[in-house]
Amino acid sequence: MDINVEELIKLLPEGYQQACYETKAIERKRTVQTPEELLVMCLYYIYGASLLETSQLAKMNGTGKMSDVAFMKRFAKSSRWFQWITKNIKPGDMCHYQKPGILQEYNVTAIDASDVYTKGAVKQAWHLHYALDLFSLNCQQYKITDEKTGETLKNFEIRKKDLIIADRAYATITGMEYCLENGGDFILRIRNKAFNLYNAEREQVFLTDWLKTLDGGASCAMFYYRDSQKNYKNVRICALPKTEEEIKKEEKRLKKKESKKQIKISDDTKFSHRYMFVATSLPETFTAEDILSIYRLRWQVEMVFKRYKSILGAGSVPVKTKEATEAWINGKMMLALLIEKFIGSVDFSPSGKSRKKQEHMERNQTGISVNFYSGHSKN
C-alpha cells in the first residue's frame, strides 16, 4: 500500500497550521514559507531519508536551498508542534474488537515502555512510555523521558473507569494507590515479594505459601497491603499454574540468569515462577478466570512497539542533541498515528463490504507494510 504525504496531511487535526506558529516551529518565513512545506521535509526525514536527501527534496519542491544545519535547527524546533499534532489526532478505526459485556463500562488500557537509543559510539537511552486502548488499538497517551525516569503508572493520566493492565515493573504500592486515587482499577502482574502481604488478622504472609496450597486451575484470594499512610488496603491476587512446557522454559531462563550474573536464585523465587499471578482491584464479580484472561490481552501493546521499531525504525535515533532527539521521537509517534489513522480510513474492499475490511485489518494488526513516498510538489 502506498501512502502519499499529502494524504497524511489531510488527516491532520484542525488548527495544525496555527499551532505551527504558536509552537514556534516556524517563526520567520524565510526559506520555509508554510507549515505544509516544513511538515513534508520533516516526514521525509523521520521516515529514513538522509539530511542530503531531505535537502534535495526541499529543492525539488521549490522550498529553496536549505543546508543540513539549517534543516536540523528547524527540525529540532518542531518537537512541540509534533506533540501538539499527536495530542489532537482523533483516533481512527484501525481495528476494533468486540468488548466483552463484563468490560463495557471500562476503558481497558495496556501500559508499557520501550527503550530508544541514539546511534554512535556513546549511546544515549530514552524511554517511550505508551498507553494503548486494547479494543481499538489506538494510542491513548505517550510520553518521552530520559533513561532516569522509570516505569511507573504516574507517567500517565488515569481517569475514572480506566482499567489499567501492566507488567511487573508497574506493580508497586505507589502505582496502585495512584490508580485508585484517580478512580481507576488495575490488573498488574506482580513479582514474588514485590511488597509485603498480610492476612485478615494483619499477619504477614508469603505468596509462595499460598501458591503451594493450590491444586490446579485459576484461583483467587484476598490479601492486604499497607499504603503510604500505614493503612491496610485489600487487594486480590489471582494465580494460574503454568504448563509443563512453560515451566521448563522458565527454569532454563533462570539457570541462564544465574550463570550470567553469578547469582543464586532462591528456591522460593524459583517456585513462584511456576505460576502466573496478578494483583487486581476489580470486584469479585470478576472471577479468577476473567482476570487472567483479561491480562492476556496485554500482549497487544508489545506488538505496537514491534511495529514502531521494525517498520517505522523507531528503535534507534540518528540524531545526537537532546532537542533533535525529542523531535525525532515525537515525529515518529506523529507519523505512526497518522499512518494508523490512514489505515483506519481506507476501505480495502472494492465492494466496500465491512467483512472484507475487517478481515484485512485482522491480518494487519501485528504489522503495517507501507511504501512511503512524497507526492507533495509545487509544480
SSE inventory with pairings:
Elements: E1 2-4, H1 5-9, H2 16-22, H3 35-46, H4 51-60, H5 68-76, H6 79-88, E2 107-118, E3 125-133, E4 139-146, E5 162-166, H7 173-181, E6 185-189, E7 197-198, E8 204-205, H8 207-211, E9 219-226, E10 232-241, H9 244-261, H10 267-272, E11 275-280, H11 288-295, H12 299-310, E12 316-317, H13 322-345, H14 354-363, E13 371-373
Helix pairs in contact: 3-4, 5-13, 6-13
Would you write up a description of this structure?
By secondary structure, this protein is α/β, with parallel strands linked by helices. It has helices spanning 5-9, 16-22, 35-46, 51-60, 68-76, 79-88, 173-181, 207-211, 244-261, 267-272, 288-295, 299-310, 322-345, 354-363, and strands at residues 2-4, 107-118, 125-133, 139-146, 162-166, 185-189, 197-198, 204-205, 219-226, 232-241, 275-280, 316-317, 371-373. Strands 2, 3, 4, 5, 6, 9, 10, 11 and 12 form a 9-stranded mixed β-sheet that branches. The relative contact order is 0.16.
What is the gyration radius calculated from CA atoms? 24 Å
What is the strand content? 15-25%
Outline? elongated
Separation, N- and C-terminal Cα atoms: 25 Å
Largest sheet: 9 strands, mixed
Give the strand tally. 13
> Structural class, from helix and strand content?
alpha/beta
When the domains are counted, the total is 2
Overall pLDDT:
82
Helix content: 25-40%
Which assembly state applies to the chains in this document?
Answer: single chain
Number of helices: 14
Report the order of strands and helices.
Answer: EHHHHHHEEEEHEEEHEEHHEHHEHHE
